[in-house]
Amino acid sequence: MVRRKLIQYSPLPRYPSVTRDISLLVNRNVALDEIFMTVKKQPVEECRSIKLVGTFEGGNIPPAKRSVTLRLEYRSDERTLRDEEVEAYHSRLTSTLLETFAAEQR
């Protein structure tokens, strides 16, 4: 008896995505998972993914802080997003992160 492996796929997106980066200065005790969950809980359906680009500690960063750079991807399934829309979504998410984690934007 041969077992067949179920192949799952999703079609390629029809409309292009737009990425925006954000660098935040946060307390060292803030977990990346907390930041990711905060973004995912926001009512911005067009935000399709959030990824860590990098972290930085030391140098001119205060000892109790670290710099976190994130990449957010925005895309709609119905149409191409306009720059103004993406900026509005990104501003909303940025404001939420700054407020929630008492962060500073770099």
Structure characteristics:
single chain, 106 residues, alpha+beta, Alpha-Beta Plaits, 2 helices, 4 strands, globular
Give me the secondary-structure topology.
Blueprint: E1 18-27, H1 32-41, E2 47-56, E3 65-74, H2 83-100, E4 104-105
Antiparallel strand pairs: 1-3, 1-4, 2-3
Structure summarized in a few sentences:
The chain is α+β, with helices and mostly antiparallel strands and 106 residues long.
Report on the structure:
- The chain has about 110 residues and is α+β, with helices and mostly antiparallel strands.
- The protein has a single domain (about 25-105), classed as Alpha-Beta Plaits.
- About 25% of the residues lie in helices and about 30% in strands.
- It is built from 2 helices and 4 strands; from the N terminus they run E-H-E-E-H-E.
- The chain has helices at about 30-40, 85-100, and strands spanning about 20-25, 45-55, 65-75, 105.
- The protein has a 4-stranded antiparallel β-sheet, covered by helices on one side.
- The protein is globular.
- The N and C termini lie far apart (about 60 Å).
CATH topology: Alpha-Beta Plaits
CATH architecture: 2-Layer Sandwich
Strand order of the largest sheet: 2-3-1-4
CATH class wording: Alpha Beta
Structure summary, number of beta strands? 4
Shape: globular
- Supply the helix-strand structural class: alpha+beta
